[in-house]
Amino acid sequence: MKSPETSVPQFDLIASSFRSQLLFWYNTHARDLPWRRSRDPYRIWISEIMLQQTRVAAVIEHYHEFLRRFPTVQKLAAARESSVLAGWSGLGYYRRARMLHAAAKLIARRRDGKFPTTAAEWLDLPGIGRYTAAAIASIAFGEPVAVVDGNVERVLQRVLGNRLAKERIWQAAGALLDPNRPGDFNQAMMELGAVVCAPRAPACLTCAVVNLCAARGELPATSVPARQQKRDIHYALICRRNHKGQEVFVVQRPRNACLMAGMWELPQAIVREAGEPVFTLKHSITTTDYSVMVYRKGLPAGADGKWITGSQARRMALTGLARKILIHASILWGSPEDDAARFPHLIV
Ligand code: SF4
Questions:
Q1: How far apart are the CA of 181 and the centre of ligand 1, in A?
Q2: Same-domain status, 47 and 107
Q3: What is the pLDDT of residues 116-126, one digit of tens each?
Q4: Do 125 and 204 belong to one domain?
Q5: Theoretical Cys-Cys bridge with 326: which of 133, 168, 189, 332, CB 3.0 to 4.6 Å?
Q6: Which residues belong to the active site?
């Protein structure tokens, strides 16, 4: 396909075929995802925030549980932050939950519970960027605004046969958008990128728009991907047993920390005093691969934290890594295999 400015009548013709072929495919092949069964802006908003940097399979279970806890924006707005973080536990990137909570308060208190209906209005809320605003406005309210996420960007670059700059991608997405079904079109573009036009080895033979695609495969690489950093990190597993059963000592991250502020985790161990680790595991966050070493320790004098049981840990806003360590130590749930099933995005 040619890019929008090369020949407008020709582009319009091709764009029309592209829309109808893509939507025909989406009508019959769209995955049955829980948030697609509703046009409720609250549900669509929750799903869009959860899906940021998180795989669909990992979101589904948390989506149902979060909505069970907070079925309306009013319930979410009235909840304590610690409850919201606990409801988010396992999804990671907790800043999203804090922003979601702040936006819910604004909607409930300043807008009398009424949701914004346009992308421009959604952009005024905390935690809402250009993509999310357009996704909610197009899916829930039918506003003809295009979305660009990683999947859409890849599809468009391949279809147009060109590594366009970001702003040009947004323009191309807007030019291709179906104004009659903008929400479905946006979801269809993302779906095509997620299940057919994959980053590696796209399934071009089964692609709904293969006849309109310039690349019909991966574009040549232009740069070397960023290398993962490697870091060691050391934690103390401090346990005691009393009438409540086994308890573990946890500490709270500073409320002004850049990452996971206010979340609970295990105390860090001082390596020179630590001896041999009782176990090690791997954990990855964005571009860093951590080797996590866990030591059995006694409670240091003056330690500032609290003792919790395994069942309390389930309801707390633990960091993903703390949760993973407690599962590995069989204090929380059962085994790393359970964790792999429940939180596949946390497992490396
Ligand atoms: S033909 Fe291949 S490269 Fe082009 S959009 Fe379809 S899957 Fe992607």
A1: 22
A2: yes
A3: 999 999 999 99
A4: yes
A5: 332
A6: 48
pLDDT > 90? residue 107: yes
Q: With a cut of 80, say whether residue 200 has pLDDT above it.
A: yes
DSSP line for 91-153: S--THHHHHHHHHHHHHHHHSTTPPP-SHHHHTTSTT--HHHHHHHHHHHH--------HHHH
Strands (E), 140-238: 229-237
**Ligand 1 pocket: which of 1, 18, 158 to mutate (most atoms within 8 A of CB):** 158
Q: Which residue has the tokens 């935690």?
A: 127
pLDDT of residue 346: 31
Q: Taking 70 as the threshold, does the pLDDT of residue 135 lie above it?
A: yes
In a domain, 273, yes or no: yes
pTM of this prediction? 0.69
Q: Which tens digit of pLDDT belongs to each residue from 223-234? A: 555 567 888 899
Residue from 159, 162, 176 whose mutation best tests the ligand 1 pocket (most atoms within 8 A of CB):
159
Domain assignment of residue 325, given as a range: 229-346
